[in-house]
Design goal:
By secondary structure, the chain is mainly beta. The protein has strands at 2-7, 11-13, 18-26, 32-39, 46-51, 58-60, 68-73, 78-83, 92-100, 116-117, 121-126. Strand 5 and strand 6 form a beta hairpin.
């Protein structure tokens, strides 16, 4: 079992920045690829970003590319999502998720690939 706890969500004005953190406990952190997803009210959960177990490979949704950066600290068992130039359409509950490493990287864009999920943290961007 892996437990994931997100933090860092807040209310911010458009154009501002936030950094989300997701602390993991349980199994060896470097055994997992990690992802961030988000879900806005009335919408389905959508992929935001993913990072492989070593941190050498990252992928982003087109909607956040160039504005968001995913990173991880394996020694500290934490994954981060730095969000810059925030827009009102970024408003959502943000979830981190963990998938056992070794799978096809293209599948990391799919929520069904992930085995463990955090409880989410609310990000609200005002216009």
């Amino acid at each position: 079992q892996v437990q994931l706890v997100e933090s860092g969500g807040d209310l911010v004005q458009a154009g501002g920045s936030l950094r989300l953190s997701c602390a993991a406990s349980g199994r060896t952190f470097s055994n997992y690829d990690l992802g961030w997803f988000r879900q806005a009210p009335g919408k389905e959960r959508e992929f935001v970003a993913t990072i492989n177990w070593s941190g050498s490979t990252t992928y982003y949704a087109d909607s956040v590319k160039g504005r968001f950066t995913i990173s991880r600290d394996n020694a500290g068992s934490t994954v981060y999502l730095q969000m810059n130039s925030l827009k009102p359409e970024d408003t959502a509950v943000y979830y981190c998720a963990a998938a056992t490493r070794g799978g096809r990287s293209v599948l990391l864009r799919l929520s069904r690939t992930y085995d463990y999920w955090g409880q989410g943290t609310q990000v609200t961007v005002s216009s």
